[in-house]
Design brief:
There is one protein chain. With about 160 residues, the protein is an alpha+beta fold. It has a single domain, classed as Roll (Thiol Ester Dehydrase, Chain A). It is about 30% helix and about 35% strand. It has a six-stranded antiparallel beta sheet with strand order 1-2-4-5-6-3. The radius of gyration is 16 Å and the shape is globular. About 30% of the residues are buried. The mean pLDDT is about 90. Pfam families: 4HBT.
Length: about 160
């Protein structure tokens, strides 16, 4: 079966747009700050992020299982970021600031997470891409991977753009 993605082709974002989107995502969304979620790659067709486990009081990394709620929240945030990137690519005729203002009313309307393995590790990589970008609703697919590259969880989401 051929994979068909109904989004705009890859575009190159301006530094101003990338800097602004990182600021919104990493600094202005407080819950992403709490998670320690950082953007590692921002492309119009796929976004990537990372969550680092925090060291304990004596400087060792805790290898306890990452809570499913953290995994779910991370996947949801990355799905939303993928939609933001796809919207930004669709409206390249606008200024970076105009495109950044489009994200104020983006919201999750459906989220599914499949937990495949325990979330154990020093850090985690998250990936997301938009499968379909409509005029009001976007559909995404997300992945949550361990430091060794093993797939730990998958997700799919639907987001409303008003």
């Amino acid at each position: 079966m051929t994979k068909h993605i109904e989004v705009e082709p890859e575009v190159e974002f301006e530094d101003e747009f990338v800097t602004g989107l990182k600021k919104v995502f990493e600094e202005m969304i407080v819950f992403n700050q709490v998670l320690g979620l950082k953007i590692t790659s921002l492309k119009s067709t796929q976004v990537r992020g990372r969550i680092d486990m925090k060291p304990d009081l004596v400087g060792h990394f805790s290898f306890n299982r990452l809570h499913g709620g953290v995994i779910s929240a991370g996947l949801d945030a990355m799905g939303g970021l993928a939609v933001m990137a796809a919207i930004g690519a669709r409206h390249m005729d606008e200024t970076p600031l105009q495109r950044l203002h489009r994200f104020g009313k983006l919201g999750t309307i459906d989220l599914r997470v499949d937990y495949l393995r325990p979330g154990i590790g020093e850090y985690f990589e998250l990936r997301a891409q938009v499968m379909r970008l409509g005029s009001r609703v976007a559909s995404t697919r997300m992945e949550f991977l361990g430091a060794d590259g093993k797939l730990l969880s998958t997700g799919s989401g639907a987001y409303i753009m008003s």
